[in-house]
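Before a colleague's protein record goes any further, I have to sign it off. What it holds is a sequence and that sequence's fold in token form. My question to you is simply how this chain folds and whether the tokens agree. Thanks in advance; the entry in question is below:
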Amino acid sequence: METSYDFLTIGPIAWVIYIAFILFYIIVMWKVFVKAGQPGWGILIPIYNVYLILKIAKRPGWWLILYLIPVVNLIIAIMIQFDIAKNFKKGVGFGFGLLLLGFIFYPILAFGDAKYNK
């Protein structure tokens, strides 16, 4: 008997959990965008959502081009997490949380009492 670990052989319960995580992420990021004064629906548009994240981090829009350069994009992504934490009046530790445990720290931003520093 041959076992196949094909992507499509995932059971229906796993699919429901997967879709639930995606919906939760969309809701969380929508709320973060709205708190920062950006359109929440922007999370649904590829590339535009990165542009909005740059605006939330108070970085220039042309930094979007830096995301296309290997290695540089990693450095930029790290900087953006710390800038987002700072702009929500959080410290460096929270920036590390966004960077390493974003699935925990972004919901804290979204549903907590964090205020965006406009």
In short: The chain has one domain: 7-111.
